Amino acid sequence: MRSVMKYFPHAEIGLLVKFRRPLQLVVMMSIMSLASHCLAGDQESLPNWWRSVRDCNTKYHPWTPPATLEEWQALQPALKTQIQLSQGLWPLPERTPLNPVVHGRIEGDDYIIEKVWFESFPGLVVTGNLYRPKTITGKVPAILNPHGHWPNGRFYDAGDGQADAQIKQGAEKDSAAAHSPLQARMVHLARMGCIAFHYDMIGYADQKPIDHRANFITAQDGQWLIENMGLQTWNSIRALDYLCTLPEVDQSRLAVTGSSGGGTQTMLVAALDDRIQVSVPAVMVSTAMQGGCVCENSPYLRIDSNNIAIAAVFAPKPQGLIGANDWTIHLEK
Description:
This protein is an alpha/beta fold and 333 residues long. It has helices spanning 2-7, 14-17, 20-39, 48-51, 69-86, 159-169, 175-179, 181-191, 219-223, 228-244, 261-272, 307-312; strands spanning 101-107, 111-121, 124-133, 140-144, 195-199, 249-259, 278-282. The N and C termini lie far apart (45 Å).
């Protein structure tokens, strides 16, 4: 508890640990069951994940999908529960008041940026920018945009050298977009008629008071399933709650998209929150590297599963999978 209080001195930390005893009991019972197999010398009956431990540096993370639709429909809710449990979000915490504040506004030619913050837990502030069309008629789609491990997050600036290279390669057409590709994507979505929320991951931009990689890494924190990944996932769910408070948002047209670490958040939110209707996780879904940061890994998450399985929980709703010349290069296969 001390490690949590250190970083959230003004928050009601009881909300974070209120439901953790059932979680700890489930995990302990699972470990005791497996240990009994070991003591009996029954190694062959142990699951593969117990006999061969995988970590972030493991090159191949296989998953054998069910052979039939009926088998998948039986497995899908269990996978969803496993994901929710791994995030320390089973059962879900109380949805306390968001208390949203718009504390600034920037007007572009045909779009508006609002500077926003809200409370995901009492006293725990989530910050971001809301991009909206300047003219809105009726209700419009809304898109969550969790960013990946870009330096400074939503404030990322590629610098002159990389921006010039992007323009020469044809990846970008103008200097502003080449310098700030994340913000350029938000502007483009607003110009297409959508509301786009670009919010901070833990330890980035205005979320700096909490370190991205160093918090919640003790054995005690892990026992209670209190870790960065779960807190970040809860922030994303609350960000969706915030979008749903906006009267101009069409709650039947909610989407989420992000790349790399943002792709991991995209998969998790899409799997856990039924309000999401379209999901586009970019450069993260594969049987290779599953995420190299504490914000992408938590106890119990990928036991007998991998990112392919996590993304599949969103089925049968539409999902776009994007690969690149990295660990997702074989995605189409």
